[in-house]
Each structure stands twice: as C-alpha cells, then as structure tokens.
Amino acid sequence: MERLQKVIAHSGYCSRRKAEELILNGKVKVNNKIVTELGVKVSSTDSISIDSKVLSKEEKEYILLNKPRGYVTTTHDEKNRKTVLDLIETNKRIYPVGRLDYDTTGLLLLTNDGQLTNILTHPKNKIDKVYIAKIEGVLSKEEIQSLEKGVVIDNYKTAPSKIKVKKVDKKNNNSLVQIVIHEGKNHQVKKMFEKVNHQVIKLKREKIAFLDLTGLKPGEYRYLNIKEIKKLYSIK
Ligand code: URA
Fold this sequence. Notes:
Low-confidence stretches: none
Largest sheet: 9 strands, mixed
Bound molecules: uracil
Helix content: 10-25%
Oligomer: single chain
Strand content: 25-35%
Radius of gyration: 20 Å
Distance between the termini: 16 Å
C-alpha cells in the first residue's frame, strides 16, 4: 500500500505536490469515490482517476548508475546543486532507491517502481550493500569486533556488519576497508567509523545484492535486464 499522492506522482502524471493539490481540490477518485484526504493509501489493484480520466501506469524503468562525487541523490536540491537525475536521459519520473551522500560515489539504483523500491529498502530483506571506505588510521581488532557486532549511532544500534581490511598504508596513516551492511540509515557508514574514532576520507558503494559496477565509469549508467529485475523481486 502506498500513499495516493505518491502513486499519482510515480505514474508520471504530475509532481507529488501537484497531486496533493488535486486531491485536496476533490479532483481525484479512488474506485469511483472522491478522496480529499492526503493520508489515504492505495494498492496496485485500486483504480485511480483524475478529472474522470483513469490514471495510466507509467512503464517501469530500472537504472544502475555509477554515481560520481558532487551530486545529490534527491530529485530537487534547495541549494541548486547537481542531482543524479542530471546524469540520466529519461522522460519517466524515476527516483533514487535510498541515498548516497554528495561526496559518496558508486552504485545507485533509480526506478519508478515503488514495489521494488520497498523490497530493496526494507531492512527485513537484509540486502547486502558493500562499501569500500578509505579511513584515517588503522582499525584495531577490538574496533573491528565492535563494528561487526553493531555500534550505537543516533540512539540506534546498527545490525551486525562484516568488515574486511583490504590495505593498510602505515606511512600515510590510512586504510582501505570493506564494510558490508544491509541497513541504510543516514550517513550510516561514516557514523559507524566515526564511532570507533576513524574519520572516513572517501566512500564508495561497490555492490547492492548481486549487482556491481562492472563496465561503468563514474557518471555512466545502464538499464537492468529482465533477469536482474526478476532476481531482485525474488529477494522478498
Ligand atoms: N553511508 C554513508 O555514510 N554515506 C553514504 O553515502 C552511504 C552510506
């Protein structure tokens, strides 16, 4: 079930804000009944019409982008910074699945498929997200253990993670560490390393589930194929 205004926006009809306006103005019907509340949730079997025209469903699009540094993962930015959508040629209302920070690079999925987005972002599905972080200093055994057990950030204990130290540069006092998590809290990886007193210098997401960045330079993207889409759906 999803909010009516979100479903209208994801259909490509208009923006979410405009959809809210249409609902409040009594222009939207769900299963032939006018709805004027913003909290109403609908499912894919409900029929939605606007000004008596049945809402057609936008064709689904699934994109895998290698996000470069210096782009935000929202569809609009108040500070007028570049968004990941500036990198993609599409006339569909796709949006990023989850977030990567402005300075984080790597694998980002974008789609207009709300159902798949829910599967990919719901923590219960425990989908592995593999990051490689360049951090200040060298992790001790105890620090690795506490990251793997879970640390408290923002009053929340992270689920167990997997840590692999890939490279230690003693001369420059930094290391390259792979961390696998399946949650997606705000700035989670950076905060986890900060919690054990190591600043993240660079961060890249290399994988989500079985998807990786093979063949894609920063700024490049490709469409998922049907096999990959089905495999993602089967995670549920
Ligand atoms: N964790 C972070 O700290 N930043 C990201 O962009 C992704 C995960």
